[in-house]
TrEMBL record:
Family note: Belongs to the glycosyltransferase 31 family. Beta3-Gal-T subfamily.
Cellular component GO terms held in the UniProt record: membrane
Region (Disordered): 1-37
Entry membrane topology: Single-pass type II membrane protein
Known partners and oligomeric status: Homodimer; disulfide-linked.
UniProt-listed Enzyme Commission number(s): 2.4.1.122
Fringe-like glycosyltransferase domain: residues covered: 49-211
Protein name per Swiss-Prot or TrEMBL: Glycoprotein-N-acetylgalactosamine 3-beta-galactosyltransferase 1
Enzyme class (EC, first level): transferase
Gene Ontology MF term list: glycoprotein-N-acetylgalactosamine 3-beta-galactosyltransferase activity; manganese ion binding; nucleotide binding
Amino acid sequence: MSDPHSSHEMRDLAGPEQSPGEHHSDEEFHKQQDHSVADEMSQRVRVLCWVMTGPPNHEKKAKHVKNTWGKRCNILLFMSSQEDINLPAVALPVREGRDNLWSKTKEAFKYVYRNHLNEADWFLKADDDTYVILENLRYMLFPHSPNEAIYYGCRFKPFVKQGYMSGGAGYVLSKEAVRRFVERGLPNNTICSSSNGGSEDVEMGKCMEGVGVVAGDSRDSLGRGRFFPFVPEHHLIPGHSPKSFWYWKYIYYESTEGMDCCSDNAVSFHYVSPNQMYVLEYLIYHLRPYGITYKVEMPILPSMDNLSNSSNAVSILKPIN
């Protein structure tokens, strides 16, 4: 199966039983890499990642998230209905199934609020078939303060006045957004639905709007998207899907097919199979064309508290010719 478009198509996919292993930092090309900016960013822009999963997927999918992009989160948690200390997975008081995803989302953010609110600045929700490039997420978030009431993702336009973020592509809430969601939204069923069902991402969008959290624009300076609800092929290949496909009616901003679809600092892709997780891991973090390098200057990082809105955005990573 290639290029799936639904959770049903992803259901039976599983990753390798034997670990593909990893390249070591003392190898020739790895020794030449300079991670200092990324390392500094990981301390300045702390991201807690919580991944939506369930008991049947702990081995099939979740562990492959842990083995790939999940290891770059400052804190990584898997939200399930069954504890698994090897991931680790948190046993939330919810039932499994698509009809309970909204309930699981609410319980997950309550757990994060109670146990980790002061240990991170931003809080990413992703699925166990989402692949995230954490360095690019931190780069995007850097100009913003976690005290802003804002969240980011792949923005869709129906159902919510300001739009809402696709659940599968992943969305990231500021600390203030999490605080408002749990303290103001969840106790008030006129703002946040108290039911278990409903589309998780739509219901989150309604809650965010109801508590005054802004749906942020995650596009880059060229207007290219960063969060994607499908695998790269879907967005990169012109004519891949007809204009009657639901995506074209939902996407908030005008979206282009081909190379102009996607930012060079893309953050996430959805419906990524467990095997494809390792393929992306290799292509992004290991494969290098010989003789082509990209260097960045270490910027003078301003205090996050002084960056209160997007008008303070600065280009912190400058190519050196």
